[in-house]
Amino acid sequence: MDKEIFQKKLQKFMIEKAGQTFDAKDVEVYFQDEQLTREQISLILDYAGEKRQESSLSPEEQEYLKGYLSALDEAMEESWEGRNRSYLKFAAGEAVKYHDGSLSLEDLIQEAGLGLAAGLLAAEGAKDPDAVIKECIRRELSRACQESSSAQSDDRRMVEKVRALDESLTRLEKDLGRKVYPEEIAADMGVSEEEVRDIIKLTGEDTGEEGGTQDAGTERN
Q1: I need a surface site. Which of 9, 77, 103, 143 has the fewest CB within 10 A?
Q2: Are residues 91 and 82 in contact, defined by beta-carbon separation less than 8 angstroms?
Q3: Are 64 and 105 spatial neighbours (Cβ–Cβ below 8 Å)?
Q4: What are the tens digits of pLDDT across the range 106-119?
Q5: Does the pLDDT at position 97 exceed 70?
């Protein structure tokens, strides 16, 4: 099989299948003249998956990835354990797969690097060191994404609480025609007075001395 001809055919396949779903059978039919092995078909599917992930990267992230991989290629020409450097390329590829917008690609590559470092230690004496290293990389990426998603979820909940407090405050002031106390806001929102005070502190309002309306930062012009 001529390598250049195959690469051109693969590129054509990717263009024709852009935006479509396809499986091993589709690959086998398209490349029937090449009589691909199962392993080769699997590699094409992996390649297609990576390309689709790359398409979700911003232009800046695509440029960063290109520069990062290029720097690795140059470094591999030197010494320093080429096998370990090959894992850095694998880690970068996994970072692209885990890229969902919750973390930047650069942050994900750094997290993958931490997973690689842990994997190299864990792989010492292991029956299948390659599997151990790759699993550590994926585990670290998964952990980082979950923590980021959890933090973003917490931020959204806090924004919602601040908005609810502001709406309650505005409504009570209008209904009562006076300054409002934290305990009144708590009763209106159905939460504890302590939680109301915590939200007020996060908004940077003046908590005052006497626990009255200044405590809630409720006096408005």
Answers
A1: 77
A2: no
A3: yes
A4: 899 999 988 888 88
A5: yes
What token pair was written down for 216? 């809630």
Number of domains in the chain: 3
150 and 195 share a domain?
Answer: no
Q: Are residues 165 and 146 in the same domain?
A: no
Number of Cβ within 10 Å of residue 79's Cβ equals: 8
What whole-number distance in Å separates Cα of residue 145 and Cα of residue 161?
24
Of 144-148, 172-176, 182-186, minimum mean pLDDT range: 144-148
* Helices then strands, each counted (H, E), the chain: 9, 0
Asked whether residue 212 is assigned to any structural domain, the reply reads no
Domain residues for the domain of 170 are: 156-203
Count other C-beta atoms under 10 Å from residue 108's C-beta: 26
> Which carries the bigger pLDDT value, residue 218 or residue 167?
167
Residue 86: per-residue pLDDT: 78
219 falls within a domain: no
Q: Is the pTM of this model over 0.70?
A: no
